[in-house]
Amino acid sequence: MPVKADRPHMLIEEFEELAFTARNRMEGLQLEFIDGQLRSRALRDGSHGLVVQWLTRICMQHHPELWLHPGRGLRVQAGRGRAIPHASLAHSDAFAGHGEWSDPDAVLMAVEVTSWDSDTDRRHRQEKPRVYGESRIPVYLLIDRTECQVSVYSEPGGHRYETVRTVPFGKDVRLPDPVGITLPTEPLKDWVR
Hints:
By secondary structure, the chain is α+β, with helices and mostly antiparallel strands. The chain has helices spanning 12-25, 46-62, 120-134, and strands spanning 30-34, 37-41, 66-70, 73-76, 81-83, 87-91, 101-102, 109-113, 139-144, 149-156, 161-168, 173-175, 181-183. The protein has one domain: tt1808, chain A.
């Protein structure tokens, strides 16, 4: 029988304790809790880090008051879930004094960069757009190295994003307000297999 969010594998407090223990005992292991199910995140390769650095530089050039916070844990699904975007664009001090998990209210954009793991389609292209849309994060940016494309999700409507724009690597794409940046995606071609 499939697990539903209203009948999760474990209580959220149990998940948070498990995630804390796993992160401290197994370097690089990150756990998420989506739709009442435990999820693990794949280890990132070196090119993954270069993508996040590239995006950080662009964001800082346009919005020096903002920061691309890497790996910030977010309370999603009305507090019943936990997700860790690869990066979250928010004011530089947005998470000051927070513990491991923060409400997504301060996040202007959640960013995910695909890895080469088997559940990329389910996690990045199906679950994350829904979860971030439900959390009303204004923009979700998916840098899809598997498909060599960038998808920009915007206008969260409560259960999903109303607008999705996908362009191939090499074509500029506009990140709508409140981000308001045009990304030149040509450099992304260098960070795929």
